[in-house]
Write a structure and sequence with these properties.
Length: 457
């Protein structure tokens, strides 16, 4: 097809491209498909080889928006319903089976989201209605019904029973914890240092309240520990403490919250084996493992109590990876220390904070495996580092620099970068993700090199 070919659709409003097909939305809400349809991605009821002219997709109501993956297509209506067609070979349509649909199928969307947290092959999100949903690790959704043995995977989001009014959610090794509106914390799953496991072969327990936390303001957690800041200015942590990441001056793990040796805590962020917090005057304190200099005190000595990061202006946000840490100052510059394994902001080991101006004011940031992403103050998303699986979000697989923009992820309100695909929650509370390295769809979907709305039945 030539770059200027007429596909025969009048009054076109939006176009979305897949691997070998296009989907067009016209001004009346009609959806048209053109291109290759071997896997049913044209939605015309057939599986056709070769290039096909534009044909209208039979939808029950007019569409308000469209999206296309490599071998499937979706349309959203004004009521929030989502209809999809094409290949589900990698569970990208979310029906949990390997099927091909040649005509539109109703895919009710994941509810509008407020926040998302991801770890390993699992994802959890808090809806704007206060509900919590998880996909992936079956322990989180209560699929393990007896003691021992692996939990079956949840191949589509399932609502976590017993959690209401969630503001934020964090996820770790086999557990998820939610901060709820009355400022308490609930956890679901099983980890011997975080959530007590069941004592008998009974149905998996519902979400449990974390005792002693009644005034939490922010929450952070990953791997094997969780921390909160409170209205009293304290920071409290629970979970594994082998490197002092709980910050109470010991290396004793605790399933009950312990008080961090820090006052005036305003915000906390956790990595696998270290933790950092912002105190009331914007100073940054870190504790836990320090082999890479990720505590920012100029040494490589583990610290079971908080140490102040020297040389920083007042910080307003934090972003941590397993091997390095960054603070975002009031002007949107990033200050980082440790060993950068993500996007190449700084070479080698740097146990002292170093300023990094990226050419735009950073609002928030996150780090994955050889990848870093940030949302700027205009809510434009940027990703840099390796893009072997399309993590750069611009349709290519080449390495990107810190100024690179993720196409189609503007208006971002929240960011999630993990081992799996990068994701943002946009201004309409939709979840958009790109690339294809597990962690979101258990069956590892085909490559999404552009931000794609994620829907499940």
């Amino acid at each position: 097809m030539s770059p200027n070919a007429d596909v025969g659709v009048e009054h076109a409003r939006t176009v979305a491209a897949g691997a070998f097909h296009f989907v067009v939305l016209d001004d009346s809400g009609g959806v048209w498909s053109v291109g290759g349809g071997r896997d049913g991605e044209l939605g015309i009821g057939t599986h056709t080889q070769g290039w096909q002219p534009a044909r209208r997709v039979a939808l029950p109501v007019p569409a308000a928006d469209i999206a296309a993956g490599d071998y499937h297509s979706c349309a959203a209506t004004d009521t929030g319903a989502v209809l999809c067609w094409g290949s589900d070979g990698g569970n990208e349509l979310g029906v949990g089976v390997d099927r091909v649909f040649a005509s539109a199928q109703l895919m009710p969307a994941w509810p509008p989201l407020a926040s998302i947290s991801r770890h390993g092959l699992a994802s959890c999100a808090a809806g704007v209605d206060g509900s919590v949903w998880c996909v992936g690790d079956g322990v989180l959704t209560g699929r393990m019904n007896c003691v021992g043995g692996p939990a079956p995977m949840a191949d589509r989001p399932e609502r976590i029973a017993g959690i209401q009014g969630a503001i934020d959610v964090v996820i770790g090794d086999g557990f998820a914890c939610a901060l709820v509106q009355d400022r308490r914390v609930q956890c679901r799953g099983s980890h011997p240092d975080v959530v007590p496991p069941p004592t008998s072969a009974a149905p998996w327990p519902a979400a449990q309240w974390v005792q002693g936390i009644t005034d939490a303001l922010t929450i952070a957690g990953v791997e094997r520990h969780v921390c909160v800041t409170t209205a009293r200015g304290t920071c409290e942590c629970f979970g594994m403490n082998d490197f002092g990441q709980l910050g109470d001056g010991t290396n004793r793990s605790s399933i009950a919250p312990v008080l961090v040796a820090l006052t005036g805590a305003q915000r906390v962020q956790a990595a696998a084996e270290h933790t950092c917090a912002i105190a009331d005057r914007g100073e940054v304190w870190c504790w836990g493992r320090n082999v890479y200099g990720q505590l920012g005190d100029g040494t490589h000595v583990d610290r079971p109590r908080p140490v102040r990061v020297a040389g920083l202006p007042p910080a307003r946000d934090l972003a941590l990876s397993e091997t390095f840490s960054c603070a975002i100052d009031q002007f949107g510059d990033m200050w980082c220390w440790g060993y950068d394994t993500s996007g190449g902001l700084m070479p080698g080991l740097r146990p002292e904070a170093t300023r990094h101006g990226l050419g735009y004011a950073v609002r928030s940031a996150g780090f994955g495996d050889r990848l870093a992403c940030a949302i700027d103050r205009d809510r434009v998303t940027h990703c840099w580092g390796e893009s072997w699986w399309g993590e750069g979000g611009n349709g290519s697989f080449s390495r990107r620099n810190p100024g690179a923009v993720v196409v189609g992820a503007n208006g971002a309100a929240a960011l999630s970068v993990s081992w799996g695909p990068p994701c943002v929650i946009d201004a309409s509370h939709r979840l958009l993700c790109w690339s294809s390295i597990g962690g979101l769809d258990p069956n590892d979907p085909p490559r999404r090199t552009w931000p794609t709305p994620i829907v499940w039945p």
